[in-house]
Write a structure and sequence with these properties.
The chain has about 160 residues and is an alpha/beta fold. Helix content is about 30%, strand content about 30%. The protein contains 5 helices and 8 strands.
Length: about 160
């Protein structure tokens, strides 16, 4: 019998944690909402509002806490997703910016809930190991929003 994972990332939302977890789990295989606790009568948020949503993304545990407006998500923490294909980058990028998300530079975006994501090619780490090649790759990806694997691969190859 395996020991449950003890460490999990907890993401703070005003009231949209359950909606966010539902979107996120729909985008990745091996993902699901595992439990939802709800506020009771007399609590800081309306009765029945999700308090804590526990979920997994590709087997990694997360929590979404609906704690009210006191704290906001920021770029200081992001979820980084390594993608093997341009199709996967495009699918995730489009789904995460839909409904009010925002593109940013270098493969970063912010979803409609305010969570920052990095959607990057899985080969990025390899492309950055050789200083001369890394400089070419960086020159190409720095002005990009959504990353384009073919363009980055061409820069890597020189």
């Amino acid at each position: 019998m395996s020991k449950p994972q003890r460490i999990s990332t907890c993401l703070w939302y005003d009231r949209s944690g359950e909606e966010a977890a539902t979107l996120y789990t729909s985008l990745f295989d091996n993902s699901r909402i595992t439990s939802v606790s709800r506020y009771s009568k007399g609590a800081p948020l309306p009765e029945g509002t999700a308090l804590l949503v526990e979920f997994t993304l590709d087997g990694v545990p997360f929590q979404a806490l609906n704690g009210g407006p006191m704290f906001k998500l920021s770029e200081a923490a992001s979820l980084s997703v390594r993608c093997d294909t341009q199709t996967e980058i495009d699918r995730l990028w489009n789904a995460l910016i839909a409904g009010g998300g925002a593109e940013s530079r270098c493969g970063w975006l912010k979803d409609r809930f305010g969570l920052s994501w990095q959607i990057v090619p899985s080969m990025m780490a390899t492309w950055m190991t050789d200083p001369a090649r890394a400089a070419r790759v960086m020159a190409v990806f720095m002005p990009m929003n959504k990353l384009d694997i073919a363009t980055l691969e061409a820069a890597y190859r020189g």
